[in-house]
Amino acid sequence: MTSTPIISISNLGKSVRLGSDNLTILEGISLQVKAGETLALVGASGSGKSTLLGLLAGLDLPTSGEIRIQGHSLGELDEEGRARLRSDHIGFVFQSFLLLPTLSALENVMLPAELRGERDCEPRARELLAAVGLKDRLDHLPPRLSGGEQQRVAIARAFMTRPSLLLADEPTGNLDSKTGDTVIELLFELNRTHGTTLVVVTHDLALAQRCQRQLTMASGRLQGGQHGEASADGRDESGALSV
Ligand SMILES: Nc1ncnc2c1ncn2[C@@H]1O[C@H](COP(=O)(O)OP(=O)(O)OP(=O)(O)O)[C@@H](O)[C@H]1O
Ligand SMILES: [Mg+2]
């Protein structure tokens, strides 16, 4: 574990222009997350959770403030640099799954590893798809998969490169409780075995409570003001899946 936080956010703001008005989506967000930590972001619909996750992934740019991921300031990187940082360190599961519609489930899962030049990615991709209950859907194209199945492909894909940071937006949102439980076990297994930092947006209280820290967003702000490092070490102890 390094002393540099894996995520460091200072005074982050995001606003968009709507006609002649400015709509503030995020305001005054400061947060540090240690490597290996598990953090749940909760809060009402529209409070800004997905927007914050998109900024952390470097998919969108803030209006003010700074985000550092593993010491790299996202604002100082160009599009290509941010893509590189994502590919090297970050896995993400978003509300829209962002699967490529012309690639099979298996190919979608293999893609992030192949883009990094890794070889022999297929066995791990098959293993991950089996772990999320999709071993009989390997050759399906995303439009032929149900919503929950697409979500599981996106989760398997996010795990593929064993990222140091996993950003997950409602990872169990479309899943039945049994499949949701499997996905939760996979998330914490990845955290345990690879020290993957988890930032999980969720309305699922059980999932939030398994994280070491829970933060609530309200109207674009983190409740409770400034948030430093976690103090407790509430590591999860269960789960036997090997990822
Ligand atoms: N590009 C945009 N233009 C205008 N408004 C936006 C834009 N992106 C987000 N918003 C608004 O910002 C607010 C926060 O959106 P966000 O998707 O981050 O909420 P959320 O907390 O993830 O909600 P949910 O729990 O429903 O997923 C919403 O009111 C949304 O309408
Ligand atoms: Mg959202």
Describe this structure as you would to a colleague.
Helices cover 32% and strands 25% of the residues. It is an alpha/beta fold and 243 residues long. The protein has a domain of 164 residues: Rossmann fold, CATH 3.40.50. The strands form two sheets. The protein has a six-stranded mixed beta sheet with strand order 6-7-8-3-9-10, with helices on both faces. Strands 2-1-4-5 form a four-stranded antiparallel beta sheet, covered by helices on one side. It binds adenosine-5'-triphosphate and magnesium ion. Adenosine-5'-triphosphate binds next to strand 2 and helix 1. Keywords: ATP-binding, Nucleotide-binding, Transport. Belongs to the ABC transporter superfamily. Macrolide exporter (TC 3.A.1.122) family. This is Putative ABC-type transport system ATPase component. One of its GO terms (cellular component) is plasma membrane.
Summary?
The chain has 243 residues and is of the alpha/beta class.
Based on Cα principal axes, name the global outline: globular
CATH homologous superfamily assignment of the domain at 36-61 and 79-216: P-loop containing nucleotide triphosphate hydrolases
CATH architecture of the domain at 36-61 and 79-216: 3-Layer(aba) Sandwich
Could you report the average pLDDT, rounded to the nearest whole number?
88
Order of helices and strands: EEEHEEHEHHHEHEHEE
Distance between the termini: 20 Å
Ligand inventory reads: adenosine-5'-triphosphate, magnesium ion
Number of strands: 10
- Proportion of beta-strand residues: 25-35%
CATH topology group of the domain at 36-61 and 79-216:
Rossmann fold
Domain ABC transporter: 7-243
Protein name: Putative ABC-type transport system ATPase component
Family: Belongs to the ABC transporter superfamily. Macrolide exporter (TC 3.A.1.122) family.
GO molecular function: ATP binding; ATP hydrolysis activity; transmembrane transporter activity
